[in-house]
Hints:
With 121 residues, chain A is mainly beta. Chain A has strands at residues 3-7, 10-12, 18-25, 34-39, 45-51, 58-60, 68-73, 78-83, 92-99, 108-111, 115-119.
Amino acid sequence: EVQLVESGGGVVRPGGSLRLSCAASGFTFDGYGMSWVRQAPGKGLEWVSGINWNGGSTVYAVSVKGRFTISRDNAKNSLYLQMNSLRAEDTALYHCARSSGSYWYYGMDVWGQGTTVTVSS
Amino acid sequence: QSALTQPASVSGSPGQSITISCTGTSSDVGGYNYVSWYQQHPGKAPRLIIYEVSNRPSGVSNRFSGSKSGNTASLTISGLQAEDEADYYCCSYTSSSTKVFGGGTKLTVL
């Protein structure tokens, strides 16, 4: 079964850091681009970051650029999101999502259930 | 990058067809064919229903179709069914090498 499972969410104070992980299974992980997408409580979807199949290209939404870093370890079938200088507005459910091809900009055809990040003092 | 513009809500009766619009600019929807649509039921993860403007992934009903004209993409659902009641989001690649979602449309099946 093709599956993505996120972990690493939690409650963190403003200015703090958190590292999210996404474990992939059931498909050849290094053949696909990946993205992180978040959804604040009661709000819509917001694309956060994307990475190509080999990690050679990484891109970020303006709202997180310079604070978040996306990476992947193809040997471990895992995707990561390092989040620094967290703000209250980063509070959301964070999904990892697989692109339907090698590059991050294709449609996202497999989604995890998400991990919750709460930034609060 | 501003969010793409979608109507907040649409509704239709079972069996009818509805269309959801997604308006952007020449820097996103109008400039590229990397427009996708997602269906999200409450408490669930989003599901890809249309990619690259008009392509359906395997397993998605042919009642769902996508198109684009200028800076506006559209999702049409024909033969509405109760199970189609959900939130729908469009998404586009942008000239800034990012992606942008629409604000989402709540579909109510009357």
